[in-house]
# Entry
Amino acid sequence: MSARLAAPSTVFASPDDNTAAEPPEHRGLRRDEVRLLVADRHGIAHRLFRDLPDQLRPGDLLVVNNSATVAGEVDGRVPGRGPVVVHVATHLDDGPWVVELRTAPDACCPILDGRAGEVVSLPDGIRLRLLAPYPRPGSSPTGRGDRLWRAQVLGTADLIGYLAQHGRPIAYGYLSGRYCLAEYQTVFASRPGSAEMPSAARPFTAELVTRLVTNGIAIAPITLHTGVSSQDVGEAPQPEWFQVPEATARLVNVTRAGGGRVVAVGTTVTRALESAVAPAGTLSARSGWTELVITPERGVAVVDGLITGWHNPEASHLLLVEAVAGAALTQRAYDAAVAHRYLWHEFGDAGLLLPR
# Structure
């Protein structure tokens, strides 16, 4: 069964030469000194992220993801293949883990010809056996193979403890070096579980949060533990575990009833919130696994604006951005981001899209 999605309508040149290859602190900037492109019905404005309180209104609500990043990358070896990089995505309720094998040494490319039964040996004797493609055979829309696998830990080894001791943050070939786990945490991180950083919130600082609250802008948390990025064109996001607390659901409903805007800090927050919408269109407390794919055709029910990083051409995340902001505003924002050389990826610059 194919998981291929329709391509986003937003079209722009590949931003490969505008990649943030290191955290902003390594470029001499504070976290909140990355650039912020503000796009609304009045046009495009170029700010710094620390200017965010001036771009919102008293009564608005920011919803953030409090999931913390775990050390999900480790080196491995497969008989007949040699060295590989293993990305551990998530632990499934029925026991297996979701993993991705990538090329060594920098995880540049996915390995798409894995076979059920192959055993991956990790340092210090940990072994993983590939069981079956995840979430099902043929999930990759390219037809070139399967990117994600269910994997079983052989023996009684504690993979969570092993990764905490031996793992490192998941990273890809575009980064200029290795960075410590603390640089992959946001100021809101409190519940470990994300394979990759919920990076839209990385530019927030404690001082910025104080200014927002002082200006009458509320902040509420959800949890969504991220998997590994969708690398293939047209690949749907994988199932992810989420929780929308009762207090957050209540605050979202009160904000909307009072005329305030609910601004999701990241695509992860948008997915969690929209996965908890009740039939009446209000938000309910909810938790579990979500397979929701947000597209312009599906639309959004409770999210009025979005803070986000910049996504690659034809990435499935762009469909979610278009669902929130509309295709026209999304296109104008990306055109401006490319023209003004905003930086892409998890350590890059940010956008604030406010269609309403």
Summary: The chain has a mean pLDDT of 93. The first strand starts at residue 35 and ends at 40. The helical segments are 52-55, 159-166, 206-214, 246-257, 267-274, 316-325, 327-339.
